[in-house]
Structure formats: C-alpha cells, structure tokens
Amino acid sequence: MRRFELPRRVIDAFASAGVQMDLLPYVAGASRAEVRVALIEPGGTIGRHRATRSQAFAVVAGEGEVAAADEVRHPLQAGHVVVWEAGELHQSWATTAMTVVIVETDGRIETTEHHREL
C-alpha cells in the first residue's frame, strides 16, 4: 500500500473559470480500466479483501482509514489517494461520510513527482 496527497491544480484551459481539479495517478499499459464512485456511511467499511487488479482509492470528501495486510490503520481524508497492487490484502473504513473515486485496472497505477507520498 502506498498513500499520497492528490495534487490540485487550477484549470483555465478552454476558457475555463473557477475550476480546481485533483489529479489522479496515471493508468499505464492497460487494456481495461474501470472507474467507480463509492459513498460510504460513517462507520461503514469495504471489507478485507485482495485487490483483483491494481487500484487507486481517492478520497474526494470525508475522512476514514485504510489498512493493508499488516492490519495497521492509516488515516485518510479528502485529497488523499491510496494505491494497491493486484493481490494486495486491504480494508477501508469511513469515520465520517466518505466519498471515494476508485480506479481499477489490469495496467499499472503510476504516480508522478506531483504526488507527495504520505
């Protein structure tokens, strides 16, 4: 498990105004990628399981915790992203209502120098 802050950029291309965007890590070498949005109630959990593919778990609202195989809980909040590799055991919990964007791929999740590891 790797945890990062999501870099946020002001978007002004195409005459855009009033837009800030969190930049998810890249998906590389993929023949398939799926994006989902999870709304997790306070006290809710996505149970302990192995990642079926590489996965980015980006918190866009709220707070929670994640743990890998070692079962040590790490805090998360809006603006954080966790990257799990295929087969990695993990679980997540919401301490407040939490909205998460989940990207699953058979490719690789690649961070850049803009993603600061936590």
From TrEMBL:
InterPro entries: Cupin_2, RmlC-like_jellyroll, RmlC_Cupin_sf
Superkingdom of origin: Bacteria
Domain Cupin type-2: 38-102
One Pfam family from the record: Cupin_2
Signal sequence, start to end: none
Record-given protein name: Cupin domain-containing protein
Species, as recorded: Occultella glacieicola
